[in-house]
Amino acid sequence: MPLLSPSSVLLLSGGFSASYLSSIYLIPSARVQHPSTSPTSKNDPADISIPPPTKKDRNHPSIIKSRLIAVSISSLSSLLSIPLILSHHSTPKQSYLESIPQALKLLGFVLPSDWKETVRMLSYPVGLTMSLFAGSLYVQYLEGDLPFVQRGGSWKSLKNKFDGWRGIRNFVVVSFCTRSTLLNCWGRGLV
User: Fold this and answer.
1) Which residue segment(s) compose the domain that 23 sits in?
2) What integer pLDDT is reported at residue 50 of this predicted model?
3) Which candidate in 4, 66, 72, 103 could, as Cys together with 30 as Cys, close a disulfide (CB 3.0–4.6 Å)?
4) Are 36 and 53 in contact (CB under 8 A)?
5) HEC sequence for 57-105
6) For 12-21, 120-129, 131-140, 164-173, which range has the lowest pLDDT when averaged over its residues?
7) The whole model's pTM is what?
8) d(C-alpha 129, C-alpha 147), whole Å
C-alpha cells in the first residue's frame, strides 16, 4: 500500500518545486539586475561622482552565490519536511525522529541489500539526468562550445568549463539537485 496518494505526491512535488524556484526570485541579492536607463543631464556635476550602475546577469559571481545559498536552503527545508509528512501520514502514528529512517530509505540514502535493486535505484536518476541535459549538450556541440570539439582543444578549455562559480553551478549543483528529486521516492514506493 502506498504511503501517500498520487495526488498528494504531486502536490508535494509542486510545492517543493515552487519553493525551489521562488527562493531564486524572492531574495533580492539573487535577482538579476539591469542598469536603469533613466536620462541624466550631462551638465550636472553630481552625475560624474556617481559610478554607472553595473549589469548583473545570471552568470555574475554574486548572483550565482546568492542563488546557490537560496536553493540550498530551500532543498534542505524540503528534505527535512519529508519525515514530518511521513510521520503525519503513518499508521500507527510515529514521531518525527521515528520516521527519519524510513524517509532516508525512501529518499535513497540507504542502499538496498539486493544489487539489482541498487543498480535500478542508481540508474534511473542518472538516466533521467542524462536525458535532461542531452539537448543542451547537443546544442553546445553544434556551436563548438564543448571542450575538445574544435581543433586545438586543450585541457585548459576543459578546465575553464569547470572553473569558478559558473562551473560549480552548471556541473555540480544542478546535476546533484536534478538527481535528488521525488522521482526517486516515486520509484521506491511512495506512490
Assistant:
1) 6-35+49-188
2) 59
3) 66
4) yes
5) CCCCHHHHHHHHHHHHHHHHHHHHHHHHHHHHHCCCCCCHHHHHHHHHH
6) 164-173
7) 0.64
8) 20
